[in-house]
Amino acid sequence: MEDNHMEENEQKLEKEVAPALIAVHPNQLSVTVSIGSDLRVFNLHDGSGAKLLDENGGHKDSIRAIRYSKSGRFFVSAGDDKLVKFWDTNSWHCFCSVVSEKRVTSLAISNDEMFVCFADKFGMVYVVDIRDYNYENQGSVNKKAVPILSHYCSIITRLEFSPDGKYIVTADRDFKIRVTVFPKEPVNGAHEIQSFCLGHTEFVSCIAFVSSQDCAQGLLVSGSGDSTVRLWDYASDTLLDTCDVGAKAGLLNSNQGQEEMVPAVTDLCAASDGSLVAVAIQSLPGIMLLSCNLSARTLSIAKVVAVKGETFIPTSIGASFSIPLLWMVMGASSLHNTDSTLLARVRVISGFGSNQSEPVSHETSVLEDTEIPGGEPLLQELQGKLSIGEEAFSTAAEAVKTAMRNLLIKKNYSAERREVRKKGRNDKKNQSPA
Amino acid sequence: MLEHESISNPTHSKTTGLPRKRFYRARAHSNPLSDSHFPVPISPSQFDLTLHYPHYFPCPDKSDGSKKIEFADIGCGFGGLLISLSTLFPDKLMIGMELRDKVTEYVKERILALRTSNPGQYENVSVVRTNSMKYIPNYFEKGQLTKMFFLFPDPHFKEKNHRRRVISPHLLDEYAYVLRVGGIIYTITDVEELGEWMKSCLDGHPLFEAVSEDELVADLVVKLLSTATEEGQKVERNDGQTFRAVYRRIGSCVPH
User: Fold this and answer.
1) Which of A47, A48, A43, A34 is nearest to A76 (CA)?
2) Predicted ipTM?
3) Which domains does chain A have, with CATH numbers?
4) N or C: which end of chain B has fewer CB within 10 A?
């Protein structure tokens, strides 16, 4: 199994740096940050950190994806230890641990909470059926993952279910977004491809659905290494709009050498009222807000929200469904094995969308530490420390950027270099020395 | 222009103008997993047909979009099938997809030479160097193709390499996507185990059903599967057995 070209590159980056991730309970009852193999949960409803219960001792390697289910009833985490863990959000007991063949890159939960899908580094997407889990009885269950579709030998970066649950959308490193019909019985596979959204010129790093009560089917937004965010009518693979976010953020610096890559979009989050999309971009200290008009089917750049007083470049962003706050985290797993606690920095932006009754006002502001829900206890729990020094982050930001680039951008070797690399191949048995 | 070239160009025969195979030798096997360095269109609308079918698409900006490629030969090798299909279906556009560089060059030269020596013919056939296991959706729109061919694909005997096979349960999803409902997929091999594998993948896929024997007998193309290609002719010379699986793309009937 370790015989293909991709695996060769990956072995060198065994200890890849993983970005810190953040997820918010749909009703903001809790906020979770993952950093390295650590999962940190803060319960906002009682103002305390939650203690996670797992007979197997939690994750053993970097966590790459975290998600709350639509009602918030359970939470799923997965990553480089090839485990997908299911947690009950009342007791924070891990009731199921599914083994994956390869390292997990992304996961999604169906809106009806019956299925959890996850993707691995070889382009395979699996489904776990948890329909029969009994939430009253707190016992553990054994579940197996079943493969349902694949992007041939391409790293799948994200997967998402459409708002109406009809489709599962998968994005990969080969610039592709595939929209597949999600059948009622997915264990037989998801074989009917609805469309491919093709247009990005670099790896697709993140996708999100934008929907509202008036537009339940919603539209798809995607972010890419090509520094754009695109809006799609996903069922008919129509590209509706493209926002050149890297250029607009003033990040494209023509003074820098030709080797400089354009800043990749690292994460997206749509406001629950369908009016805004928050975009995290490499090297941008803050967030770019895009204004989305679902009826006109347009996407345009609204503004950049800068975080003042510190160089805060978010590695992951998230929001609840009911409260218009955007939560952001910055952090990375350690490059070297140290015993010290990994540090993450959490910030919150208010005005992200609207409360149902209030009119839409895009008065966004970055909240001070004392103003955020949960206040200092939350920061202590999720960050690892209350106040974080600047130096801790400068290396982390660069490390995450490099790791993403190494993983997702294909190396372009010159022809001579390719010949030299070919000679070094060790799979030819009877080759006479060159 | 080509006549002048073939006089000074030793790679082509002086008499027929056709390229000589011995100058285009390549290994039978190529690694479908390696990230190769040929250009791939970002989407089917970006696929430049003026390079392939100049007779039908003379200017880059003016394309009425009515004529589209309908037949694709996946792993077309030296182009034997395509050349036969070209005259059998003169008004259909068809393309060969091949991973090996030298072999693609050979087919290109062959087509150009045939176009020159048979004016008005062979304008509907072309070849592109690409990895069809990764990039099929980049070349063809949903339901664009009416015929897809997989002739004598690489068997990848070892079990650990089975996932490199060009016919597999997951890749069939993509082939079903580019094939129109009613479109036909033709496969043939001289390796019994592979023949069984392909048949079982197709049987197990909800969007394909087997084409009946009666229809196979009536289909002109079916005979070409074993006779038109170099590989097929070699099998016949050696009195080998071939295993065919011909299936039709059907509409979805899965509840969702």
Assistant:
1) A34
2) 0.87
3) 23-400 (2.130.10.10)
4) N
